[in-house]
Design a protein that fits this description.
By secondary structure, the protein is of the alpha+beta class. It contains ten helices and nine strands.
């Protein structure tokens, strides 16, 4: 079975489209999980790289199941576009990351030979290529976002991402292909290394592939919760919920505060990111909270973004008197501009203002 220059069948096109859609949507959820890990460990970024291989997992499936020399590149591009429009916090850069990852998988496939040839020997090469593909996200993000990050830290998270690629995009992807092969869905594109082939009873299939089934179920349930419970992608991105210890919870819309617009000059100075001084126009958070009416026991404010990122401000009285603390509407939603705070306190794509 030789590889074709372009997808020649409807099956190829549908396979690319379905896997790219699933991969893009679930990668947004994986990004959310990464943010949760960063918050738990108290680091600004990087700890979530131990799951980075899950982004490349889908590209490996595409490249194996669609034996075309550029299937990985095309699939990566499509996956990145889907991820962009399902709420990725990285913006258009995620499309570039996914495109490069797909191209590396294509190079890996060409260097390793067909999966149907000497699968045991070639499989290890695929795993290493998947590791390199996964690690490229750190390099691209370094170029665009993390120019001030210590090199030792970048090296550590690059190694973590590489290892994740070997495990999730390499080993786990091929175990998933083994499972699909046993069901008869990929017999013409993938050869099992399990000899003799186990009996295909329903119970046997589930037990042999329990880890893969468990992870797939976790991603499916978790992404559904993320989409509707955390990101709330059906909500208008130019609005956010005001809730918690307030007398009148409501949905904030900038158009409802047209007479209270202010403009401030601010500069984002974070540990690893920097935005030069610029004018930001929006609504003071104090005006927004005044509309909701704070309860006497209110003491702080929790600001939550669509991707689950959360920042706590422990002194509500300071916020109520701060004339440089506002929400502004950007192209990707509401931004919290905390002009007199460290850059790590600025929040993109705000979805909830929770008074506690």
């Amino acid at each position: 079975m030789s590889e074709r220059r372009v997808p020649a069948t409807t099956r190829d096109l549908v396979t690319l489209a379905v896997l790219a859609a699933l991969g893009g949507a679930l990668s947004t959820f994986v990004g959310y999980l990464g943010n949760m890990v960063n918050l738990a460990l108290g680091v600004p970024f990087g700890a979530g790289q131990f799951m980075a291989g899950l982004h490349v997992f889908w590209i490996v499936l595409m490249r194996v199941l669609v034996p075309n020399k550029v299937a990985g590149t095309l699939g990566g591009l499509l996956k990145g576009v889907v991820e962009l429009f399902t709420g990725s916090t990285h913006g258009i850069v995620i499309v570039l990351v996914s495109l490069i990852q797909g191209a590396i998988i294509d190079v890996t496939a060409l260097a390793s030979g067909r999966v149907t040839d000497a699968p045991l020997k070639n499989r290890f090469r695929w795993w290493i290529g998947a590791g390199f593909s996964s690690a490229t996200n750190v390099i691209v993000f370094q170029v665009f976002y993390f120019s001030n990050a210590p090199w030792i830290y970048l090296a550590a998270i690059t190694l973590l991402s590489f290892t994740s690629g070997i495990i999730f995009a390499g080993y786990f992807a091929f175990e998933t292909l083994e499972f699909l092969n046993e069901t008869g869905l990929t017999a013409s594109r993938f050869v099992s290394v399990r000899t003799p082939r186990p009996a295909n009873t329903r119970r046997g299939l589930v037990l042999r592939n329990l880890p893969a089934v468990a992870i797939v179920l976790f991603l499916a349930v978790g992404s559904t919760y993320y989409v509707f419970g955390v990101a709330k992608i059906l909500n208008d991105p130019s609005t956010c919920e005001v809730e918690g210890l307030v007398e009148s919870p409501y949905i904030f819309r900038p158009s409802d505060f047209s007479a209270e617009v202010v403009t401030v000059e601010a500069e984002l100075i974070g540990s690893y990111t920097h935005l030069p001084p610029a004018n930001y126009t929006g609504i003071l958070v104090s005006d927004i909270l005044n509309r909701a009416v704070l309860k006497p026991e209110a003491s702080g404010l929790r600001v939550t973004a669509k991707d689950g990122y959360t920042v706590l401000f422990t002194d509500i009285s300071s916020i109520m008197s701060d004339d440089r603390f506002l929400l502004t509407l950007a192209s990707d939603g509401l931004w919290l501009i905390a002009a007199d705070y460290d850059g790590s306190m600025w929040v993109k794509m705000v979805s909830v203002l929770d008074v506690y």
